[in-house]
Amino acid sequence: MIPVTIFAGRDIAVLGLGLSGLASARALKAGGANPVVWDDKPEAREAATAEGFTVRDLAGADWSGFAALVLAPGIPLTHPLPHWSVKRATDAGIEVIGDIELFFRERQRTAAAGKVVVITGTNGKSTTTALTAHLLSASGKRVALGGNIGKAVLDLEPFAPDLTYVIELSSFQIELAPGLKPDAAALLNITPDHLDRHGTLANYASIKSMVFAHLGAGGTAVIGVDDAPSRAIAESLKGPFAVKRIAVGRRVETGIFAEDGVLHEMEDGAESASIDLAGIGSLRGAHNWQNAAFAYALARSQGLPAASIAQGLKSFAGLSHRMEQVARRGKVLFVNDSKATNADAAGKALASFSDIYWIVGGRPKEGGLAGLEPFFGGIARAYLIGEAAEDFARQLGSAVDYVQCGTLDRAVEAAAADASRSAAKEPVVLLSPACASYDQFANFEKRGEAFRQIVMALDGAESVKPEQGKAA
């Protein structure tokens, strides 16, 4: 835990007792403050009471006595309307902040506090964050990983000069952290998302760009230039820090570009290093080339040589449920992409393989499989499960051979049998459902775990290690 001492002796309102809210309350209490906490859920209030916190309905509190409101990132700050607590805090003249702001303010008061690398973007940020942490750790650096991935940031190890924090940030967290001041920051991409919380794409992009607002001399801004909003931000970046551009399929003068699975590091138009990602099974596909390019640039910003990064990339296992290579059975590869809960996410996996035995279905999202037509040629057969099965059968029509399986276990059994008869060099049984899981599983994690268990129960299935996950 990182004790937060900046409000010692003061009352602090904490609203929302999820992962980050509880971590904030504990850190404030450890630092000498008196957090006054509330959550709409009775079970959350009971847990806070059991920990000895002051639990009080903030709707009836005297807000003039609070030094600040620490707001959970899931609670609206501005759109569609400010939450009632935000209005109460504003009327009382107190600031509204989040756990990320507490982290950076406490860091400012700590001598030799180590380095901080932050990553945000609409897509790919979790993989990039995990990969960046892996590269740094594999090179021998001491790393703390958290934020919007894994642990809440205030649950990480206390500040130390030899520690590098690698933090994933959502737009919700960024807008509650006006004092965010990392040593290196990455903005991967911007596509329309969370507009119900941010109002417009321009406002969403502006919030994302705040990761660069306080970069100082010696800092590094890493930014994608493959989408128009990010390119506009890149063009506007000016400061006493380095700017590294990232692109896939197009050359950049200073930064990293990926082409045909090869990363090229550029400095003023000259190539200084290159790394071939071929054979790294956890980094297949153009979207993962982008993730790898960002992680490479961030690792370089922290002093890692290219050769060290190349070794680290080879040992990256990937994230669970995101194109996770679960097992091999003979030449058949089994891939768990349960996190693909919509067509766009499933498309990234379908684009990364050929000769695919595709397990698809669940509770459908709006549009179903629309947009996936360009990938149908790589699908040997589809295995339809869940509530979406009938609709997906109609959408696939005669374009893709399919079979109605209903449940995941029957789909895995059928797909494994068909794939074993394939003449392809590496047939792939791919769970990439393009659907929510709630018709048959509590969440996508439970669905992915079930897939893994079913696959590993197959005769001859052998678990895949990172170095074994390379393409055949």
Structure overview:
With 472 residues, the chain is of the alpha/beta class. The protein has 3 domains: 11-97, Rossmann fold (3-Layer(aba) Sandwich), CATH 3.40.50; 110-314, UDP-N-acetylmuramoyl-L-alanine:D-glutamate ligase, CATH 3.40.1190.10; 324-468, Alpha-Beta Complex (Protein-Tyrosine Phosphatase, Chain A), CATH 3.90.190. 31% of the residues lie in helices and 24% in strands. The protein is built from 15 helices and 23 strands. A 9-stranded mixed beta sheet has the order 7-8-6-9-10-11-12-13-14, sandwiched between helices. Strand 12 (255-259) and strand 13 form a beta hairpin. Helix 5 packs across helix 10 (286-301) and helix 5 (125-138) crosses helix 11 (306-314). The two termini are 44 Å apart. The model is unreliable at 468-472 (pLDDT under 50).
Question: At CATH's second level, what is the architecture of the largest domain?
Answer: 3-Layer(aba) Sandwich
Mean pLDDT: 94
Output the radius of gyration.
Answer: 24 Å
End-to-end distance = 44 Å
Please name the fourth-level CATH homologous superfamily of the largest domain. Answer: Mur-like, catalytic domain
**Biggest pleated-sheet summary:** 9 strands, mixed
In percent terms, what proportion of residues is strand? Answer: 15-25%
